[in-house]
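Dear Dr. H.,

I hope your travels went smoothly. While you were away I took the liberty of generating a structure for the chain from your last submission, since the lab meeting agenda had it listed for discussion. I wanted you to have the full record in hand beforehand rather than looking at slides cold. The sequence, exactly as received, is reproduced here:
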Amino acid sequence: MAREIGVTIAKHLDAELRTVNDHLEDNVHVHNLVVLEGKDNVLLQFQTTNRRARECIESLQLLGVGSAFGSIEIFELKSVIPRLSNHPTLNRGSPKGKEYNTSISLTLEEIYETVEKGYHLTFEYLGLCACGSIVCAVGLVTNSDPTVVASMLLSPLMGPILGITLGSACRDATVTIKAIKNEFIGVFITLLFGIITGLIVAVYEDEDWSTDEMLMRGLVSGLAPGVIIALPCGVALAISVTSADGTILVGVAIAAALLPPIVNAGLELSFGMIKELPYHEGSPTTHLQRSANSFVLFLLNWIAIYIGCLIVFAMKRVRPRIFHMAPRKEREYDSSAQLLPDRNTAVSTTSSSSKTNEKINEDYSESTPLIRRDSASLVM
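The corresponding predicted structure, in token form, is as follows:
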């Protein structure tokens, strides 16, 4: 797998174009560099391996691309012939380092795009919360383990947790607040459907109808094992997001089991309200206690998953960047002003107020061909 990355810069930003072009030419992980000139913009397009895509993109962002000027487009390639890993340009520069590197992952923007799909309050999110809650309630009441497992796969509650964790790691208050709000809404819907199901069943059942599936989630002895399982689930969840491996999510959804404790808390609460309230001294409160234990189990699992995700995000260097958090400000650029630091103190502003745009483009075209491929791209 490889990535094709395009950098679009306004044609009149001559100094920035030169700086970015020189940077890409010197980067040993940039392959098949092509420069194309349009009417108003210049496109610098190149290929790189998945392992080095984040490094290349972050180096461009440090130059100001995407925040101070220009934009970056990222495309996924199925394959490249010849393979980039065997490309002659890999022989340039320093020797190849070790293969293992915990920081290799998707770029921050790609992680944002992946996580953003799960924490927004949409019709699909609300519908899956309701459907998963109903399926889980039926499974708990009928003591059906496969039905409870199926409800875990329907639950969307893991999405807002990822949003909260990513917002915390990147100190993005907007994402964090929105994800927390939507998580509360999802938990409320799940608990509500549990209470409604419990009220329906409790009306027609005089005896204690708590099944084994309900008991195992309402006992204090089940809290510690739940946390021990949830912590590695949080680690696996973050690994899945930062590596774009969706196959892990199914196992995490089943192992974390966020939905059943909430539904069970609603079931036990409704039965306790009917059978054990009003409270009198000496009267049993078994169902109310199980309800509280079930909800505490959910909270502990939630915290454990959050901590596990934060650990992986820290190891993967998912952290805030000023040029990502600050909104882009559109403004007119003066081609005579140098917005970027000099490249090895050798790049300086060559344009002046007296130069016309045609002269600037002519100077640029003389030093940099409009359509150029490096020699390595022709080696098969």
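Two observations you may find useful: The two ends are 18 Å apart (CA to CA). DSSP finds 14 helices and four strands in the chain.

With kind regards,
E. W.
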